[in-house]
Amino acid sequence: VEGMGTYNIDEGIMGYVVATGRPRLVGDVKRDEYYKMCNETTISELAVPIKYNSKCIGVLNVESSKENAFNKSDRDVLMAMADFAASAINNARHHEELKILREIDQKITSSLDLIETLSLIRDKASELINTNDIRIRLLEGSKLIPVVGVEQSQISAATWEIGECIAGKAAEDR
Q1: What's the CA gap between 59 and 11, in Å, rounded?
Q2: pTM, whole model, 2 decimals?
Q3: For the CA atoms of the chain, what is the radius of gyration?
């Protein structure tokens, strides 16, 4: 978000919340060992973890120019809001995943070009799991032949027997 800044997860009060998974209520940030100045007018701060399946996926943070502006009741309200935020974030992520899966489904049903279809699956899988190194291999007899994600000149060197490497072990367990 424009103007908000990005911070490492080991910095400041919000970093503390990510690291510990616990809320932090600070009446005077100048006296807090974890505080990192982001806004000159901030005097008190309350940060709570946004958790989904017990994993911290973000932080809900409020600040005030008044000392001791927040209390335990505010913390409880913010914790409840963080639970709602976690659900909304998870739903939004699943919505994006479903959009990508629908796009793949439409391509599969409309294309007869295997390489084009598998390339789309590779590209979309890369988006979903945030990686840039996905290869698709097809089983032919006792070999896994690379089809997508390996240069044509490397295909013979990248062909594995069943049981070789992780992909070969997965094929062996089929």
Answers
A1: 13
A2: 0.57
A3: 24
Residue 121 in tokens:
């699956």
Residue for token pair 């009741």: 73
CA–CA dist 98, 117 (Å, integer):
17
CA–CA separation, 69 and 41 (whole Å): 13
**At residue 2, what is the residue type?**
E
Q: What is the pLDDT of residues 73-121, one digit of tens each?
A: 999 999 999 999 998 888 887 887 788 888 878 877 887 788 888 888 8
The three-state DSSP-derived secondary structure of 4-69 is: CCCCCCCCHHHHHHHHHCCCEEECCHHHCCCCCCCCCCCCEEEEEEEEECCEEEEEEEEEECCCCC
Distance, CA of 26 to CA of 97 (rounded, Å): 38
Q: Which amino acid is at 108?
A: I
